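User: Hi! I have a protein structure encoded as tokens and I'd like to know what sequence might fold into it. I'm fairly new to this, so please keep things simple.
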């Protein structure tokens, strides 16, 4: 293995920077510093921590264009989407700034004791292992509640967004966080394994693949450390016969094509009941064709390259195998290096990769359902459990299906999306634990029972 990371602009292949992996000694020092800082940081008031959030928010707003540029250069997301990602981070920070004190306040519970309550104490140093697809957002979603609860954090980011990882570390320092409160490490898989085992690290939050989730959970489990896992998804988007396509088709397309389809919560399986099938395909195709394709740094671009060529190759494999098993191309399916044309595959059935696996690119897999009942059965036929979305005018009838779907989210007439105010996470192979909202900030705390007789 090379001892360097080389980052590249996916649109042109131009080399952006080279980074050296840190030595074991440097990483040990990071861990020791994290622990040292934790001892002081945990004693500060929540108010002192939310004041830092306000500074952080101001700096993010000030440097929005600079960070959006960096995101786009490192992983090829259209600039417009990178700007939206930074704005979402600001929303998250402001949300916890306003609510953290209330979320972390002692919770009185009446018993026969003179006083009994839950105290939410921080755990210590928490490791965050984060992916490249939302290089700022995923890190902030982990770090903001974690730090505000009084923990310290160490970030192991995806190699292709190392520049973002270092920029985020710098951002926390500029906002006035103690130097080792949030640290980025540049580490190999082997070093990460050692970090998880180290006593200083108390828990791990991972957003990434199912495979990475199983590995991290196994290692952390051996050492009895808590994990929060936000893994892949294969969200169904159910179109019922009474769906108002005129109103919702733009949202439905966005649900699949956002971030060039590289989103865990994107709609991946379109399950469409017979009566509306032809109309849906026609409208879906027309809407898809309106997407402005171009260079990622062009502010008008809506869809561009995928983040790496090997990722596009994997999508190609999934599509090719599905076609061999009977799926048909309704639109697109041209690939050149990391560029994958927006694609609609029809006649997709369970057993095909386009139905069973997470397709992490701009490919919509469409399956025809006989009726509403069949549509929900197909939706539930997945190893993953992040979220389901349903488009229908009959909300009352659809409510009855909420309990039949085991996913972490159920959205009606809206794409599945994360929101700082609402819990976010999955079931089954999509992982466990919740991020965001009050649930998220209470993942990495000791819920201590206090009883005073
Ligand atoms: O890849 C996952 C998307 C995460 C999000 O939108 O919060």
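Assistant: Happy to help. Inverse folding works backwards from shape to sequence: for each of the 453 positions I chose a residue that suits the local structure. Here it is:
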């Amino acid at each position: 293995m090379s001892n360097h990371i080389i980052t590249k602009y996916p649109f042109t292949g131009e080399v952006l920077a080279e980074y050296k992996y840190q030595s074991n000694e440097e990483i040990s020092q990071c861990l020791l510093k994290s622990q040292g800082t934790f001892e002081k940081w945990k004693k500060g008031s929540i108010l002192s921590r939310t004041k830092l959030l306000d500074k952080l928010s101001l700096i993010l707003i000030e440097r929005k264009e600079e960070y959006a540029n960096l995101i786009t250069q490192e992983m090829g997301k259209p600039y417009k989407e990178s700007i939206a990602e930074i704005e979402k981070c600001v929303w998250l920070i402001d949300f916890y700034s306003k609510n953290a004190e209330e979320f972390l306040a002692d919770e009185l519970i009446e018993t026969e004791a003179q006083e009994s309550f839950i105290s939410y104490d921080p755990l210590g140093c928490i490791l965050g292992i984060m992916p490249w697809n939302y290089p700022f957002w995923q890190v902030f979603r982990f770090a903001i509640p974690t730090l505000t609860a009084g923990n310290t954090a160490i970030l192991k980011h995806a190699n292709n967004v190392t520049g973002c990882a270092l920029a985020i570390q710098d951002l926390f320092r500029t906002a006035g966080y103690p130097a080792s409160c949030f640290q980025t490490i540049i580490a190999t898989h082997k070093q990460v394994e050692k970090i998880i085992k180290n006593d200083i690290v108390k828990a791990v939050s991972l957003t990434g693949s199912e495979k990475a989730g199983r590995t991290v959970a196994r290692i952390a489990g051996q050492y009895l450390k808590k994990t929060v896992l936000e893994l892949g998804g294969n969200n169904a988007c159910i179109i019922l016969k009474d769906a108002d396509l005129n109103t919702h088709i733009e949202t439905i397309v966005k649900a699949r094509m956002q971030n060039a389809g590289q989103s865990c919560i994107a709609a991946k399986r379109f399950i469409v009941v017979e009566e509306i099938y032809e109309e849906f395909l026609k409208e879906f195709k027309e809407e898809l064709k309106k997407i402005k394709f171009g260079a990622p740094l062009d502010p008008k671009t809506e869809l561009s390259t995928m983040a790496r060529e090997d990722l596009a190759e994997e999508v190609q494999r999934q599509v090719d195998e599905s076609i061999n098993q009977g799926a048909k191309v309704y639109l697109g399916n041209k690939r050149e290096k990391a560029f994958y044309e927006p694609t609609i595959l029809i006649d997709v059935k369970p057993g095909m990769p386009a139905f069973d696996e997470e397709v992490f690119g701009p490919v919509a897999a469409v399956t025809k359902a006989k009726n509403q009942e069949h549509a929900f059965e197909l939706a539930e036929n997945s190893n993953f459990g992040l979220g389901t979305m349903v488009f229908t005018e009959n909300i009352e009838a659809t409510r009855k299906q909420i309990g039949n779907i085991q996913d972490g989210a159920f959205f009606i007439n809206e794409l599945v999306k994360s929101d700082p105010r609402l819990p976010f996470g999955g079931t089954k192979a999509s992982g466990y634990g919740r991020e965001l909202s009050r649930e998220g900030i209470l993942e990495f705390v000791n819920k201590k029972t206090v009883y005073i007789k």
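A useful reference point when you look it over: The chain has two domains: 4-231+430-452, 235-420. Feel free to ask if any position seems puzzling.
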